[in-house]
C-alpha cells in the first residue's frame, strides 16, 4: 500500500476502564479501514491495550451503527422512519415546551464519555444546558462508584494514591473487591510491587482472574466485606497494634471505635463472612505489621447488595488505624472514579445560574417514582442503556412507558432503544469528534481524525439545537468544541493547558498532582481528620460509626453477585454485542455456580438455566466451578434483562445526597435467586 495513503496518529482508547485509560495508535488506510495497537509512548499504559481496546476498530464502518435520526411509528411496534435532525429536534422541543421544563429529565452514561472520561467536559455541557434551562438532570455515579465514594468520603479519604506510588513503594497490596484485570494499568503496578517482594492479597466473593497474582485469597460471603474490616480492626486494637501517634494526631473517635468493635471478634466475623477466624487474625496482623500497605477498593460491584456504602466506610478506617495515610505506598490506591491529590478542571456547568424549581434528587428510586407519577414526562438518555442500568428492570420499563416522550442518543441500538425509545439520535464515535481523557496523572488529547459517518453528530449539537428552539441563552458560548475544551483545561492542575499545547506536547500534559493521597494529612471531613466517629453521618440519620448489616440467615436461595470480565465494561456498544470480537468472546451469560449448589439442583456445567426470584427471571448458562463458594452465584453485570432480578429499594436518605459533588442515590441491587434447568416447565 502506498504510504501516502496511510495516516497514523495517537489517541485514547474509547473504553472507560478508569483508572485504566490506555493510549492507542490508530492507522487510517486509504480504504477507510483502521488498525489499532497500543501506544508505547503513552506514560500511563506504555503500549498496553486489552482486547476491548483492540476491538474498538470494529466501530468504524460498522453496519450496526445508527446513522440517521429515527422516530418510532407507535409504541409497541418496531416500525421506525428516518427523519432529519431538524425534524427530530422540533418534535423533542415541542414536547418539552408542552410539559414544561421541570417535567424534562436528562440522564447520561459511559457511552457519552468515550473521549471525555474524567475530563468531564461533555457531562458539564449537558449540565450547563439543564442548569440554564431549568430542567431535571441526574448524575449517573449513582449506578456506579458513587456509594463506595460516599463511604470513603464520610471517613475522609476520598482521594487516591497513584498506581505509580503503589508499584514503587507498597510492601503489601490488598485488592479488596477489585478484579484488576479490568484495571490493567493498575495491575501492572501490582506486578511491579510483587516483583519487589510486596505481599499481594485478594479479597473477593470468588477466585477472580487477579487471584492468580495473589499470595493469599480471602473468599467472603457477598455483602459482608464491612464485617471483615470490622473484625480486622478488632484484632488490631486487641493486639494494641494500631499507630497510636497517627491516631492521636489525625483521627476522631478512636475510643468510640474501639468500644464499637470490641465484640466484633474473629469468631463473630467468621459467622458473618464465612472467612475462618484464624485467617482473619493472620490477615489483620499482617496488615498492621507491614508498612507501607495499600488497599485498592473495588468499584460498583463491591457496593451492590447488602454491602452498600458501609463496606468502603469500614475499609477506609484501616489505613488510619495503622498510620498508612499520607505515606508513600500506603493508604487507598487507584479506584474507578477516584482522583489524585490536586486533580481538577475548570467547571463550565453554570450551576450557579440554575433557576429556582422543584428538582428531583439524585436518587434512582426518586427518578422512577417521578416517571410513575408524571412529574417527569420527557426522558432524554445520552449514551446510556438506562433500562438495563437501573435495578428492578420491569418496574423501570413500566415507568418509562408512562412518559410522553423517551429519547436516546447513542451510536448503536440497545435495550433502551429497542424497548422504550420514541426518538433515536445518532452519535459520533471517538474518532469523529475532539475530546480528552484524564488519568490520575495526565490529560490526554483525543483529536478528531475522520468526518462523522452518515448524519451522526456530536452531542453538543443536541443541546445547541434544543436551546435555539426553546430560547435558552448562553448554552454554547464557545466558537467550537476546541474552544470549549480550552475553557475546561484552564486550571492550575493542567498548568492552564490548551488543545494547541497538548498537540505540541505529543497529545498530553502531566497534571500537577501528588502521587500520594493526602500528603498534608488534611482530610475531607468537617474536622479535617479521619473520622472514625462521624457526626456528619449521624446528622443524616446514618450510623456515626462503621457498622455492617447482619446477613439474614432466614432467606432462601443463592446470593447473586456481579462483576467485570475481560470483554465487557458497562452497557455501551450495545453491551459489547455490536463489536464482533467482544460478542464472540462472551456469546451468552455465564453464571458461576459452586459444584455443591449445582449438584443439589441437578445442574451440569454448560446447562441452560433459568435464574429467578419474585421480581423476574433471566436465562443463562451454568459455569460449575470450585472457584466460587457454595451459597453464592456470580455473573457479569450489565446483561440486558439481568436487573429484572435486583432490588430497586433506595440505600441512602435524601439528606445524604448533596454532601458530595457526586450523587449517591443508588438502589441496593440486592438479589437472592434460585436456579433451575431452563427446560423445566417447557
UniProtKB/TrEMBL annotation:
GO terms for molecular function: iron-sulfur cluster binding; metal ion binding; molybdopterin cofactor binding; oxidoreductase activity. Its EC number is 1.8.5.3. Pfam families: Molybdop_Fe4S4, Molybdopterin, Molydop_binding. Residues 6-64 form the 4Fe-4S Mo/W bis-MGD-type domain. The keyword ATP-binding does not apply. Keywords: Iron, Iron-sulfur, Metal-binding, Molybdenum, Oxidoreductase. Its cofactor is Mo-bis(molybdopterin guanine dinucleotide). PROSITE patterns: 4FE4S_MOW_BIS_MGD (PS51669), MOLYBDOPTERIN_PROK_3 (PS00932). Coiled coil: none annotated. Belongs to the prokaryotic molybdopterin-containing oxidoreductase family. This is Dimethyl sulfoxide reductase DmsA. The lineage of its organism: Bacteria, Pseudomonadati, Pseudomonadota, Alphaproteobacteria, Rhodobacterales.
Amino acid at each position: 500500500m502506498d504510504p501516502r495513503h496511510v495516516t497514523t496518529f495517537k489517541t485514547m482508547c474509547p473504553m472507560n476502564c478508569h483508572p485504566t485509560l490506555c493510549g492507542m495508535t490508530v492507522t487510517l488506510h486509504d480504504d477507510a479501514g483502521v488498525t489499532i495497537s497500543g501506544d508505547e509512548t503513552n506514560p500511563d499504559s506504555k503500549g498496553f491495550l486489552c482486547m476491548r481496546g483492540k476491538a474498538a476498530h470494529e466501530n468504524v464502518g460498522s453496519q450496526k451503527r445508527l446513522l440517521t435520526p429515527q422516530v418510532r411509528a407507535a409504541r409497541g411496534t418496531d416500525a421506525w422512519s428516518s427523519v432529519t435532525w431538524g425534524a427530530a429536534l422540533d418534535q423533542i422541543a415541542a414536547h418539552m415546551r408542552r410539559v414544561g421544563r421541570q417535567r424534562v429529565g436528562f440522564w447520561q452514561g459511559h457511552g457519552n464519555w468515550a473521549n471525555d472520561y474524567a475530563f468531564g467536559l461533555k457531562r458539564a455541557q449537558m449540565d450547563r444546558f439543564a442548569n440554564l434551562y431549568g430542567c431535571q438532570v441526574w448524575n449517573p455515579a449513582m449506578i456506579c462508584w458513587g456509594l463506595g465514594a460516599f463511604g470513603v468520603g464520610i471517613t475522609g479519604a476520598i482521594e487516591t494514591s497513584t498506581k505509580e506510588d503503589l508499584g514503587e513503594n507498597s510492601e503489601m497490596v490488598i485488592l479488596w473487591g477489585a478484579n484488576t484485570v479490568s484495571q490493567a494499568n493498575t495491575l501492572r503496578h501490582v506486578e511491579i510491587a510483587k516483583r519487589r517482594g510486596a505481599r499481594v492479597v485478594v479479597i473477593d466473593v470468588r477466585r477472580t482472574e487477579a487471584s492468580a497474582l495473589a499470595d493469599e485469597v480471602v473468599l467472603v460471603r457477598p455483602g459482608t466485606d464491612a464485617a471483615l474490616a470490622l473484625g480486622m480492626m478488632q484484632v488490631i486494637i486487641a493486639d494494641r497494634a494500631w499507630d497510636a501517634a497517627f491516631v492521636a494526631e489525625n483521627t476522631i473517635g478512636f475510643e468510640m471505635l474501639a468500644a464499637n468493635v470490641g465484640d466484633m471478634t474473629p469468631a463473630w466475623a467468621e459467622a458473618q463472612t464465612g472467612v475462618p477466624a484464624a485467617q482473619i487474625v493472620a490477615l489483620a496482623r499482617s496488615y498492621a505489621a507491614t508498612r507501607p500497605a495499600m488497599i485498592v477498593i473495588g468499584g460498583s460491584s463491591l457496593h451492590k447488595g447488602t454491602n452498600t456504602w458501609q463496606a468502603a466506610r469500614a475499609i477506609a478506617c484501616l489505613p488510619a488505624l495503622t498510620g498508612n495515610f499520607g505515606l508513600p505506598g500506603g493508604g487507598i490506591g487507584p479506584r474507578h472514579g477516584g482522583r489524585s491529590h490536586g486533580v481538577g478542571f475548570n467547571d463550565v456547568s453554570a450551576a450557579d445560574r440554575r433557576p429556582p424549581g422543584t428538582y428531583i434528587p439524585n436518587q434512582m428510586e426518586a427518578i422512577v417514582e417521578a416517571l410513575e407519577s408524571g412529574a417527569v414526562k420527557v426522558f432524554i438518555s445520552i449514551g446510556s442503556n438506562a433500562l438495563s442500568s437501573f435495578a428492578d428492570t420491569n418496574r423501570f420499563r413500566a415507568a418509562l412507558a408512562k412518559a410522553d416522550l423517551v429519547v436516546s442518543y447513542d451510536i448503536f441500538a440497545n435495550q433502551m432503544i429497542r424497548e422504550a425509545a420514541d426518538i433515536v439520535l445518532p452519535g459520533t464515535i471517538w474518532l469523529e469528534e475532539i475530546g480528552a481523557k484524564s488519568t490520575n496523572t495526565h490529560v490526554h488529547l483525543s483529536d478528531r481524525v475522520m468526518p462523522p459517518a452518515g448524519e451522526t453528530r456530536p452531542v453538543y449539537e443536541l443541546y445547541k439545537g434544543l436551546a435555539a428552539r426553546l430560547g435558552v441563552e448562553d448554552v454554547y458560548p464557545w466558537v467550537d468544541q476546541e474552544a470549549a475544551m480550552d475553557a475546561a483545561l484552564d486550571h492550575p492542575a493542567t498548568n492552564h493547558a490548551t488543545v494547541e499545547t497538548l498537540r505540541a506536547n505529543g497529545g498530553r500534559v502531566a497534571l500537577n498532582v501528588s502521587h500520594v493521597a493526602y500528603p498534608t494529612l488534611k482530610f475531607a471531613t468537617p474536622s479535617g481528620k479521619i473520622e472514625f466517629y462521624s457526626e456528619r453521618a449521624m446528622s443524616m440519620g446514618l450510623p456515626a460509626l462503621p457498622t455492617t448489616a447482619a446477613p439474614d440467615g432466614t432467606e432462601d436461595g443463592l446470593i447473586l453477585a456481579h462483576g467485570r470480565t475481560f470483554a465487557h465494561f458497562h452497557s455501551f456498544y450495545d453491551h459489547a454485542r455490536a463489536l464482533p470480537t467482544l460478542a464472540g468472546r462472551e456469546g451468552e451469560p455465564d453464571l458461576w455456580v459452586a459444584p455443591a449448589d449445582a449438584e443439589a439442583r441437578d445442574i451440569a456445567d454448560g446447562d441452560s438455566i433459568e435464574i429467578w426470584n419474585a421480581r423476574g427471571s433471566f436465562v443463562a448458562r451454568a459455569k460449575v466451578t470450585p472457584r466460587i463458594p457454595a451459597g453464592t452465584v456470580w455473573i457479569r453485570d450489565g446483561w440486558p434483562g439481568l436487573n429484572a432480578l435486583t432490588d430497586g429499594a433506595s440505600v441512602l436518605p435524601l439528606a445524604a445526597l448533596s454532601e458530595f459533588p457526586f450523587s449517591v442515590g443508588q438502589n441496593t441491587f440486592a438479589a437472592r435467586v434460585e436456579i433451575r434447568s431452563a427446560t423445566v416447565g417447557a
